[in-house]
């Protein structure tokens, strides 16, 4: 893979989208890790539902994301995935959790998302700033995930669009891990991690304390904390070398 695509596109996702649009079948093959990317609805249905067990993530993929996702549901296959899926189904399928999630999402929309959009709309009328909707909805999703899963309010949907430390660390960790896939060989980033090179970016991760929930919280998240190697298990007060 070369960097020639960067002369026409701002990021890999835009380039992939262009290639998918040019493909008659809506499917392309990327030689890195032997990945196949598809936007064909029939292919998606086949892979994520009809024959899901035939499409494991594989060890190369799990190794890339292991420092952040550990042995959580998003990074394992086979029996480990089935066990964690059963746990997730029991937790997320209950009426109490759905009601709690509904209250959280509704509250974020009413108290933060709509006021934010109204504020920027008023500013636009007097020549104010432009609102990046992609960034807003990314923050909205991250905010809800943190509140539902961990009981933490990151406050990243404030009128000034602040960036919480955990949000910044998570984004940086995700970007660094994604860059591993562009390395000429997996040995490169593995050696860098082993040597803890000064040139390698260090990401400060923060421990999430489940005991510090909002007062009166009716649903105490336990699912994520029980996933061995997941975010709550692997995140701690120390610097991690992800590259």
Key traits:
mainly alpha, two-stranded antiparallel sheet, two-stranded antiparallel ribbon, 4 strands, disordered C terminus
List the helices and strands and how they pair.
Elements: H1 12-22, E1 27-30, E2 35-38, H2 41-50, H3 59-69, H4 78-92, H5 95-125, H6 133-150, H7 165-180, H8 186-195, E3 202-205, H9 223-226, H10 231-234, E4 238-241
Antiparallel strand pairs: 1-2, 3-4
What's the quick description here?
The chain is mostly helical and 243 residues long. It is built from ten helices and four strands.
- What is the residue-averaged pLDDT? 75
Number of helices: 10
Low-confidence stretches: 198-243
The count of β-strands is 4
What percent of residues adopt helix (DSSP H or I)? 40-55%
Please tell me what the overall shape is.
globular
Tell me the strand percentage band: 5-15%
Specify Rg, calculated over alpha carbons: 20 Å
Sequence of strands across the biggest β-sheet:
1-2
Distance between the termini: 18 Å
**SSE ordering:** HEEHHHHHHHEHHE
Q: Major sheet, described briefly?
A: 2 strands, antiparallel
Helix-strand makeup class:
mainly alpha
């Amino acid at each position: 893979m070369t960097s020639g695509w960067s002369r026409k596109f701002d990021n890999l996702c835009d380039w992939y989208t262009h290639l998918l649009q040019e493909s008659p079948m809506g499917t392309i093959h990327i030689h890195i890790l032997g990945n196949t990317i598809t936007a064909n609805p029939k292919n998606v249905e086949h892979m994520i539902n009809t024959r899901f067990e035939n499409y494991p993530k594989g060890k190369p993929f799990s190794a890339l994301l292991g420092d952040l996702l550990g042995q959580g549901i998003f990074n394992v296959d086979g029996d480990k995935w089935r066990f964690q899926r059963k746990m997730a189904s029991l937790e997320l399928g209950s009426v109490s959790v759905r009601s709690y999630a509904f209250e959280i999402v509704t509250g974020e929309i009413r108290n933060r998302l709509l006021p934010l959009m109204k504020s920027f709309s008023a500013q636009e009328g007097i020549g104010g700033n432009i609102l990046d909707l992609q960034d807003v909805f990314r923050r909205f999703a991250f905010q809800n995930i943190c509140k539902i899963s961990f009981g933490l309010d990151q406050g990243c949907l404030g009128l000034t669009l602040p960036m919480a430390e955990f949000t910044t660390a998570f984004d940086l960790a995700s970007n660094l891990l994604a860059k591993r896939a562009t390395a000429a060989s997996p040995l490169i980033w593995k050696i860098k991690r082993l040597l803890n090179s000064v040139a390698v970016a260090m990401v400060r991760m923060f421990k999430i304390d489940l005991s510090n929930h909002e007062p009166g919280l009716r649903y105490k998240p336990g699912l994520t904390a029980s996933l061995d190697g997941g975010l709550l298990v692997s995140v701690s007060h120390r610097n991690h070398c992800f590259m």
